[in-house]
Structures are given as C-alpha cells and as structure tokens.
Amino acid sequence: MLKCIGFRQAIELIASDFGLFIHICVTSVLNFLFQLFCNNKLYQHKIVVIGDQFGVGCGDSLLSNGFTGLCNHLWKLINKSEVLRQNWVMFNCAEFESRSEDWLPGSEKMLFEGVFENRKFSNCEIVIIMLGVQDGSLFFMGERTQSPDKTAGNIVKIAEALEKMGKTVCVSYVPNPDSWEMKQHNNISQSYEHSTNQYIEKLLGKEKRKSLILGPHCDISNYEYFRSDFYDPERPMFNKKGYGFLCSEFFEILRPTLVRTEFESLLGSK
C-alpha cells in the first residue's frame, strides 16, 4: 500500500490538514510493516483493496489497531464470522489521491502492475475497487478533464482486467457526503459522485457474473447513508461509525462469495 507521498504533496497536506497528514503517515508505516512481515503461509485466502483515499480509509479512527477502512472493520467481521472457517488476510494497496485512470493497466504510474505483478498480492482471490472520490475532488476544483462517465468507464476497465486474471472483483459505489446540500435542495443529480454511481449501475448493475459484485449503495441518495453521524465533520469522508456501517454491508454482500471460495479451495485440495 501507499508509497510515501511526494514532498510537495506532503507540504501541501501539512498546511491544509495536518491531522490527515498524520493519518496517512501512520497508516503508511503500519501497512508497510504488515505487508513486509506478514507470513503468507498462515493465510489461505487474500483480499486486496485498491483505490484512492476512500480505499485508504481516510476519516476512520486510528485508535483500534492502526488499520483503517475496510482493512480494519471488514477484516474483523470476516475473522469473527462463524460461517467462515479458513484464514483470510486483507492487504490495503490503495494510493492516497490517486485517480481512476492511474489504476488502468499500462498507465504512466503503473499502480495496477505494481500490485498485481507483486508475488505477495498476485495470488489474491478477491479485489475490492474503491475509486472515484479523487476524481470528484479534482472536478470540483475545476479540472474538467474528469467526468462521471469517464470515471465509471475506467473502473469498469480495471474490473474487466482483473476478471481476466481470474479474480473476483467487488466494485464499490462512490460516497458523496460533500453533496449534502444538493441532496437537501433536491439537486443531487448535479453531484459528480452520484452521477458516477448512476453510470456504474448502468454499466455493471445488470451483470450476473460470479466474478463481478457491486458493493453497498453508499450514496446519500440512499436514505441509509443520508446521516450526518456517518461522516467526518471536517472532511467529506466517512468516520469510524460510517466505515463500520459500510463494512457491515460489504460483509453481507461478500459473504456468499467468501463461503464459495472456501468451499472451492477444500474441493481443490482433495
């Protein structure tokens, strides 16, 4: 996960949001150490998370175990489950402020290759894609090269490339707490993230492949996510409670796939 952020990016983050800078530093170091010393032989199954700051888990609390987002809450739910009997590990390979196009196979930043050509991650069975937040932020700041259909299209291309590698892919919708006022004024259609989610639904919603799963509809147009106590009051991000709820829904969606993966591994080992 998370190569160290660049010097210029670090200076800008320190000046604008020192708390978030500390969050990135702590999660970067802890995930680096975990990935470095993790004994793969102890785990029978792997889940890899790729994405932007949403995938990193920015906004979540660091006080539990230092891991954030799905790699904290979802992993706990998997390990506590009475249905799942085998050992699972989750690796956070998300990159802070990465664009959806940065994760395309063959992109200039080579993020896709950096993860899936690495022997530690290449044999994972499940990949969770959590992209779109940074694209929306750039659009809001005036970068009109971004568009909701382009973001959704990039996500679909990444998912299809992973499916060709034999992975089961779970595509997350894009959270949009920064669209709160739009929702209150019945103008949610102007939200970049909401429009991206509509394109994701249009492109992937009718697919019935076992290798492709859509995550929880974490859009504030969904009343379950139109709750102020789910979001960081200072940043447009989930807080600990929000991530906890999101991950509980992720677990319910992924549980049949996790069970099937365990069953297939038992059959394959006989």
Automatic annotation (TrEMBL):
This is SGNH hydrolase-type esterase domain-containing protein. Keywords: Membrane, Transmembrane, Transmembrane helix. InterPro entries: SGNH_hydro_sf. It comes from the Eukaryota. The chain crosses the membrane at residues 20-38.
